[in-house]
Amino acid sequence: MLKKFSQWLGGLAAPAEGSGEPRAQLCLxxxxxxxxxxxxxxxxxxxxxxxxxxTLYAEGIAGNIDSGAWEKLGAQALPLFExxxxxxxxxxxxxxGRLWSSSDARGRKKYPMVACVHAKGHELTRMASLASExxxxxMEACRQETDAQAxxxxxxxxxxGLAARATAVGPGSPERFDSSCKSLLAAxxxxxxxxxxxxxxxxxxLHREAEPAIKRGLSESSRGVHLRLPGIRGMGAGGSAWAWxxxxxxxxxxxxxxxxxxMGIEAVGGTAVGGHGQxxxxxxxxxxxxxxxxLRASVxxxxxxxxxxxxxxxAFADRVRSKVAMWRSGGEREAGGIxx
Length: 340
Known about the structure:
- The chain is α+β, with helices and mostly antiparallel strands.
- It is built from nine helices and seven strands.
């Protein structure tokens, strides 16, 4: 009972922030019918989770609602929230979550509900799977429950279960996980066909926009870098976001991750409308309200980066194709990113 009470009130049983110990912390926030307004935050026990709530919800979603940005999209706006997000930092640290359309007890539906996991110090293949399973279970349960106490029970049960399962996952390099992700991406004929033009265009956009921002310091940039990328066939919810994050880090020659983070937001379920399938919004550097317009913007409002007919140097395109061929064969990362 004491353990449950301490976890509930502030995560006293969790490793201290910056302790260097592995962690796997679940949290919930947003709108749910069990509360008259924004629900009680649960499990917000790490700086990363506080940052995720502030960036996505308190500033990003609230900012676009208050400014009327999504209303201005009209028919080009997505009808609901149904997204998976992966926010990667250095090494094996990540925040994985889902957000879905919900409402409070008064029936107000402008804000979603969010469930996410902050993990660090675990082998990425197994921990990514555990985070996905945990978040999905919580989402499905919360969609069924209408009572606040029932949601608290769901959170407590799954939070303890995640912590217990994570203890069996030791540390490990992210390299193997990323290699597998890139191999699956490169094997998609929709991306790698026609001279791999989709991947060449994605790489060129990174070269043109992200590399200069990284050189001058992402935190110093007034705007973040945004690419809208196609989903990858045959991958479950969140798989495309993981795969594109691995590819982007390799293309930017930053296999260890970016200190300022790289977020992939994957549109799933009912958001993938109009026959365009699923997509991933990759956000690099500063993430604020303008960058998060993408959450409710269809591809009619924000086209895929890979559909933009850039004028690309042939030598650059050949280097990208060579790298993609190595991904497909599971080869090691080439030194020097996309510059040869």
